[in-house]
Amino acid sequence: MIEQTKLTISNATFYAYHGVDKQEKRLGGKYEVDLDLWYNGQNAIINDSISQAIDYQSVLLEVSELIQKENYNLIETLAYNILDNIMKQFPLLEKATIKIRKCNAPIRHTIDYVEVEQTISRETYKSHLST
Questions:
Q1: Residue 114, Cα to own-chain centre: how many angstroms?
Q2: Fold for domain 5-130?
Q3: Is the distance from CB of 103 to CB of 32 less than 8 angstroms?
Q4: Single pTM value for the model
Q5: Phi-psi region for residue 76, left (φ > 0), alpha (ψ -120 to 50) or beta?
Q6: Residue ranges covered by each domain of the chain
């Protein structure tokens, strides 16, 4: 019996307008998102049923809407809001980790990207709702 299924979405790319600098919010930039989604996939596997699984296409639609809907100063806030939303939208989801990479951050150093990583579990999410 399978205890957990881990579904990974790697390097989903978006163009969005986040950052503290006015130029970032006006010109925008490239963002890359990775998601690791854990859930009990036993019923989905046995029944070969998408309705009993985490539909990664629906997850990506949620991420796309959130990353392009509002402008945030911090990618940390963006990551939190994405995790919060997918926990609400996907009740099968038991744990999720997100990484958001901000490519070409406007700083005075040569870097590939700046990245934030956050993890949330259903257990901590439930306790968050009750406070």
A1: 16
A2: GTP Cyclohydrolase I, domain 2 (3.30.1130)
A3: yes
A4: 0.89
A5: alpha
A6: 5-130
